[in-house]
Design goal:
Blueprint lengths: L14 H4 L2 E2 L16 E3 L4 E3 L1 H15 L11 E4 L4 H12 L4 E7 L5 H16 L3 E5 H5 L3 H7 L4 H19 L4 E3 L4 H13 L3 H4 L5 E2 L8 E3 L7 H10 L16 H15 L3 H13 L8 E2 L6 E2 L5 H16 L4
Parallel strand pairs: 4-5, 4-7, 5-6, 7-9
Antiparallel strand pairs: 1-2, 2-3, 8-9, 10-11
Helix pairs in contact: 2-10, 3-10, 8-11, 8-12
Bound molecules: iron/sulfur cluster and zinc ion (2 copies).
């Protein structure tokens, strides 16, 4: 949810002035070059014309790359959902000269998944970039809606489990040692807030934007967009004529991250820079995690911190459910 409603009402002040993003009409001059401004960035106390905003965005990613070490000598896999974040990160890395290979996991959600694949394909074809598309049905045996109807679990955490595992597999197949995702400042600040509120200490260290591989078959995970927020990404895609899939996942309704994002948006409206102070301060103070090495799943051999990986455990749950439905013990 991107609205500023819902967390005790809208912020005070004039949203036209307070919120970052693309302006409907120029209302001032670019802070850098004095041309008509197109994007407002209250948290940086700036307004930029399209060219200076583009430079600002690229610089934010280049700064992120100081602690997100991407290789120049080997391909980098980009997890492409077809949404604005993944297309923006793919575009920037391509422009910065990295050898990128897109990987897309088709979740099999009617309409949403088709629109996502179309957007990813259109982006890749326009730039002549490689994109591997594989479906959850082909890899796991069932699309996400079928899993959702069968197991009584939070569907977003199930989706996270299968995406983590299969996107890692697809990155490996693409010959990449690093998997890049489009997680942005809003995603990560909201996740940090949720983990702090619920004292989920073991997840806090995972909020670092570069997680080294913990197993020979695991790609490192990188989030080069952790310094830019959703409004900035929306402005970047719009100014660069990138067409992300429209409409969100129908299963996202009620996702708890929405509440944290809404609360942070409200705070950002009152105190520009709040999201940045929260996340960047956490990253600065804690540094990269000293993660334990992973073992191999006893059944499928994929990386895991438990005897069985999340995907094999999910398969067991589905089979148990099948047996119960068939009336067997
Ligand atoms: S909203 Fe949930 S189910 Fe839908 S794509 Fe995102 S994580 Fe998956
Ligand atoms: Zn300018
Ligand atoms: Zn397994």
């Amino acid at each position: 949810m991107k609205s500023n409603q819902g967390a005790g009402g809208p912020p005070r002040g004039n949203p036209e002035r307070t919120f970052s993003g693309l302006m409907e009409r120029p209302v001032g001059k670019c802070t850098r070059c004095k041309a008509p401004a197109a994007v407002r960035l209250p948290s940086h106390n700036s307004m930029f014309c399209p060219d200076c905003f583009d430079q600002f965005f690229l610089t934010a990613v280049i700064r992120a790359l100081k602690i997100v070490p991407l290789p120049r000598e080997a391909p980098v896999a980009v997890a492409v959902s077809g949404g604005k974040d993944s297309l923006a990160v793919w575009d920037v890395l391509h422009r910065l000269g990295f050898e990128t290979r897109g990987v897309h996991l088709d979740l099999g959600i009617p309409q949403f998944s088709e629109a996502s694949i179309d957007a990813a394909r259109e982006f890749a074809e326009k730039r002549g970039l490689p994109l591997a598309v594989h479906s959850l049905e082909e890899l796991f045996g069932h699309p996400l809606p079928r899993i959702r109807s069968q197991v009584r679990m939070d569907i977003c955490s199930v989706c996270g489990t299968v995406k983590r595992s299969y996107l890692n597999l697809l990155a490996r197949q693409a010959g990449a040692g690093v998997l890049v995702t489009g997680h942005n400042l809003d995603d990560e600040a909201a996740r940090l807030m949720g983990n702090l509120i619920h004292r989920r200490k073991r997840y806090l260290e995972k909020l670092y934007p570069f997680l080294a591989a913990a197993h020979p078959a695991q790609a490192a995970r990188a989030k080069p967009l952790y310094r830019v927020d959703e409004a900035e990404i929306r402005a970047y895609t719009s100014l660069n004529h990138i067409r992300p899939a429209q409409g969100g996942c129908p299963f996202s309704r009620g996702a708890t991250s929405t509440y944290y994002k809404t609360a942070l948006l409200w705070m950002e409206g009152e105190m520009p820079g709040t999201k940045r102070d929260l996340l960047w301060g956490h990253i600065r103070e804690n540094g990269p995690p000293q993660g334990d090495a992973f073992g191999s799943c006893e059944r499928c051999g994929e990386p895991t911190g438990a005897p069985l990986c999340g995907v094999c455990r999910l398969k067991d749950r589905m089979e148990n459910q099948d047996l119960k439905s068939a009336g067997r013990p």
